[in-house]
Design goal:
Layout lengths: L1 H15 L40 E5 L14 E5 L4 E5 L4 E8 L4 E3 L4 E2 L9 H10 L2 E5 L2 E6 L2 E7 L12
Antiparallel strand pairs: 1-2, 1-9, 2-3, 3-4, 4-5, 4-6, 7-8, 8-9
């Protein structure tokens, strides 16, 4: 059903945008592979139609536990698709590095670097380890879901939420 909906949206986009240059290629779900004979331009979807369908840009962690925002800050990720680089913060330290995006997967590069401020009561290493375990993602209803195989690691949104209150930090 999801492929049928995506195909209908794609046909509508191409019909309305037939003079597109094909520069705005986006990926809806990195776990779905594209058939060999599908032209790349058939996957073009403009950012104006559904900006949340693109990995590009800034995302904010949807905190689940109070410890996710123990420092009082919400972690962020900002993806630059043209350079295959990301930047952001862990809720404590600034991070940046590379990422690999293919038809079937997504992963953060092992070249990730970070500032080294101490943040009492925050397990930053667990946050970074989760990012490094990511092997694909999907975007569903405007929410970026980083995954390891079938397991959700974290959810991200375009708008920041309120940090959960904790007695730490």
């Amino acid at each position: 059903m999801q492929r049928l909906t995506f195909a209908a949206a794609l046909c509508l986009t191409l019909a309305c945008n037939n003079n597109s240059t094909g520069n705005n290629i986006t990926v809806k779900d990195s776990a779905i592979s594209t058939p060999q004979d599908t032209p790349v331009t058939a996957m073009a979807v403009t950012a104006e139609i559904q900006d949340t369908a693109s990995l590009k840009g800034e995302w904010f962690l949807m905190a689940v536990l109070p410890s996710d925002t123990a420092t009082g800050r919400i972690p962020t990720l900002n993806f630059d698709l043209s350079k295959h680089r990301f930047s952001g913060n862990t809720g404590c330290n600034r991070i940046n590095g590379s990422f690999v995006l293919t038809n079937t997967g997504f992963s953060f590069g092992r070249d990730m670097i970070s500032t080294k401020m101490a943040c009492a009561g925050y397990n930053e290493q667990a946050f970074i380890d989760n990012l490094l375990r990511t092997n694909h993602y999907k975007i569903k209803d405007g929410v970026l879901i980083l995954m390891f195989d079938a397991t959700e690691l974290s959810r991200w949104t375009r708008k920041p939420g309120e940090p959960k209150k904790t007695d730490k930090a």
